[in-house]
Amino acid sequence: MTHQQTYNPMQAKVPAPPGPGLYPFGAHQPVAPVSSYQTGQTLSSYTAPPSQSLLTRPPLGTPPSHTPPQSASPSPGPRLPPAQGTPPPPPVSSNSYYPNPQQQQQQQQQQQQQQQQQPQPQQPPPPPMAQPWQYNTAPPPVGPPTSMTAPPRGPVANHVNPASSLTVPPPPSSAAYVSAPPGQQLRSAAQPSVPGMPPSSLHPYAQPGSAPPPVNPMAPHSYQTGIAPYVGAPPAMKPTPPPTGLPVARATPPPPKADAQCGAALNSVQSPTEPDSQEGDIECPGAVAGNGPPASNSYNHVDNTMAVPPQPGPPGRHLGHYPSLPPGYQNTSAPPNATSTAHPAIQSATQPYTHAAQRYQQPPAGPGPAQLSPSLAAMSLQSSTPEALRVVNLLQERNLLPTGPISAPTPCLPQDLQKINCSPEVFRCTLTSIPQNQSLLSKAKMPLGLLLHPFKDLSDSVLQQLPVVTSSTIVRCRSCRTYINPFVSFLDQRRWKCNLCYRVNDVPEEFMYNPVSRSYGEPHKRPEVQNATIEFIAPSEYMLRPPQPAVYLFVLDVSHNALETGYLNVFCQSLLDNINALPGDSRTKVGFITFDSTIHFYNLQEGLSQPQMLIVSDIEDIFLPTPDSLLVNLNECKELVQDLLKSLPTLFEKTMETQSALGPALQAAFKLLSPTGGRMSVFQTQLPNLGVGALQSREDPNQRASAKDIQHLSPATDFYKKLALDCSGQQVAVDLFLLSARYCDLASLGCISRYSAGSVYYYPSYHHQHNPAQVERFQKDLKRYLTRKIGFEAVMRIRCTKGLSIHTFHGNFFVRSTDLLSLPNVNPDAGFAVQMSIEENLDDMQVVSFQAALLYTSSKGERRIRVHTLCLPVVNSMSDIFAGADVQAIAGLLACMAVDRSVSASLSDARDAMTNAAIDSLMSYRQSVLTIQQPGLLAPACLRLFPLYILALLKQRAFRTGTSTRLDDRVFAMCQLKYQPLVYSMLMIHPALYRVDDLTDEGALNINERTIPQPRVLQLSVEKLSREAAFLMDAGTVMYLWIGRNCNPNFLTQVLGVPSYAAVPDNLYLLPELDTAESQRTRAFIGWLKDQRPFFPSLHVIRDESQLKASFMQNMIEDRTESALSYYEFLLHLQQQISK
Hints:
One of its GO terms (cellular component) is COPII vesicle coat. It is a peripheral membrane protein. The protein is α+β, with helices and mostly antiparallel strands. Among the domains are: about 470-530, Roll (SH3 type barrels), CATH 2.30.30.380; about 550-790, Rossmann fold; about 990-1115, Severin. The strands form 8 sheets. Strands 2, 15, 16, 17, 18, 19, 20, 21 and 22 form a 9-stranded mixed beta sheet that branches. Strands 3, 6, 8, 14, 23, 25, 26, 28 and 29 form a 9-stranded mixed beta sheet that branches. Helix 8 (about 660-675) packs parallel to helix 9 and helix 15 (about 905-930) crosses helix 22.
């Protein structure tokens, strides 16, 4: 199979817009496109074995609810007597999936002869008979079709699983149903005729007209009685004398024998994520089958989780069970898997399959993910979303922004499925309608990708009711290892079909019992099939070693420059305040390393009266002086830890050491954490200039405002990347806190966090006296960092339906395989993005599914798996593709791609590519969707904000040119775009502007007995500002409160507490708490905005002549600057390029 290239806007250049050809990708960390699944056949290549019969199933909406007693007399098969004298439709021959006219005629003649032998009431001649596949269809069963020959009345074997060689006796009763023409009735063959009673009274579902009318013939399928399956979604200086205050010991290197023993001990530790040849399909690549004690079959309520209440599905349908499509909605069945010795469970059974409805009575079923109601059968997806395709002339549209927050588009799925679909706050796709093939995707000129926030806080509204399941058995597909989810289909009580690869799997016996409702025999009601986001307590086979404890190591810069900033006091006090809130259990360990030109370790072993400092001055050959006493149990040595934190700020207050040996300090920390893994928190305040990893300044201040390509965006050395990869292999994540007023080469230092799944925190111009706003932000961030939830030794795998493939990842991680990310630590503030392509045509599918599974160790030592599943429809028209475009997700994914392009190529290439992304998509819309060519720059309503977001990206700190931008500031902005979840990065791309001097309670929210005003979102233009008002700009990590020169005096006195505009302080970063209604409204609104993000944004109150006014005005996206176009000029440029 030849891999088709996917449209990549990062390859194009302005001014010549690219043609309709395909674009190759060139993003960071490319992964060879590999299909998600290697097995299976397409429908066209499958040929049914001869001499097999096909099965029929009951008409939609009339499943059985009662099975009458079975007669003891043997019978060649359950034949239905005609309802009200009407002969039933003839069965279809099983020699092929397609009806053979000659075989149909023979079947009809045989059935007519049997009917003549039975007494029939006199009825008018029936209407012309239609083929049974005109009424009801079902996908072909996996493997060869099952014989339609009815089971004998004696005990015979049910479906045989060759892998287990277990036989299941048939149920004590049987009933078969076939469809009837409109107006006729259905009755079971085993139901006796009762004189004087109509046949419909014998069965509550057998009412006249219950069968769907024949509209358009469906594509022929195989049939299976009593089964309503899912049709569709697949699958060098002298050291400074040591400070006084602590006992100091000059550490000398241990003898070589000790080093060898230590190295052997380190090498003997096996990573819990090392690949294993036998169980490589589970989320932990090194997991092996274990014989640990089975967990109790119950539901635990831990870490803000809640009890799992019984969640009945919508009336008429149970989650996880989907019938086939009604007549008139064409669909081709899923490709059947080939019979393979590698998967014995899907080989054909040696004995006929007993009617599923004999034992398992399906509930009335509504539309499933591949089924729309009859009223929607002939309706295009675009007709249900007319607003998304409303044509907008961008040159004439003045007010583009909605009044409130922009929400993600809703996929065009049945309502009951949409309610259980994964939240867009966790799982989001750039296109909520997936094109049927790569050709359509390339023609649409929009990127296809996913944006994930997999470890989102449980306290957030979307996951407040996250079910946590404890069970010794986690049900997964035996072929692709997909976790059972709401979008699978239950063929019967004992079998379910995977929605990613279509494999038919057996339902484990334990899964039949629902401990919530304490009922047996309803697997489709379990929480695993009721929730698109769920968490499992993993059994022993998901771990290679006992879960690691929570280990925290703090590496602190104590050079002269560091002490001048004053950060050490803030850090020590914050850790003292939150030491009891550190996530962990009784095994939690902590350790400390400080460094300047030497490395300082701290012996905190229990029994010491005070901490002991150990100094290693030989930074060329780092060793651990006393490995067993440098990481100590927090509960046992808490008093020593507290004593150390209280004394650290004064230990180095008189130091004059200006050098920084960051590289050797990181090497020492890595050696200390390697045996256990854990989190390394590094605090750095200057450019490292001593030992391995030393750097030199590469920034030219005269080139900050250059309109040419920006240099030095890539690392200057690979030391930090190699060390990060070593850390990742030992389950160590590195978080970097950079606090400096000078250049620190974040492009090089950031690699230590990027490839070890860590985080980067950047505080430019940090000083405890001169910049109080940054100090407050550092305090708030540190508190969140120390107390938030954390997962250790994690891996994440993303699966998708067969035919789709993943080829590029974005975020902080190490790619272990094509779809597996290694995450030594995972935190709730981390986001990820993935680019995808369509490798095989999706013509046979109505929906596709994506599943992200995150396996991690909690701070309590539990191995857990959090699973998110997203279901999206498949479409075959350009209008439907455009109608499902998620403009914010597209902008977020393009930002990640542009960052990679800036580093691998140049900044100008990335800027040109983003501009071409807007040109290409609007040109494609004009050529493929619009039927009448109109003047102007036309866009569908769903993409009306796309040019604005592209212009905002061009003016964003990461990509702007012609404006003075420090190199570290630019690199940090790129790190944020790659690492932050979409909801937070969008505020950086396009800030929100509000007028706040006239806040009222009209339309306000009431949250926790607080009234939160909801002012209108304004366009980012000076045109919207007024000297008589006050405006708040929310730019993500920073907020600006701009006060007009002639601002309302009432606002100044009631909110700011100053009598006049001239009395507003220059460095005001906190609003006074005044007992006025205006002050309460303003503080409530700003506090509500801050609470919606995990990081703390600093607030700056600025006047019209403040120095920060330039920063405020640079966020006015729609206005012209010396080096950038205004929004209207940008639209004219796009129109000119499209019209060429």
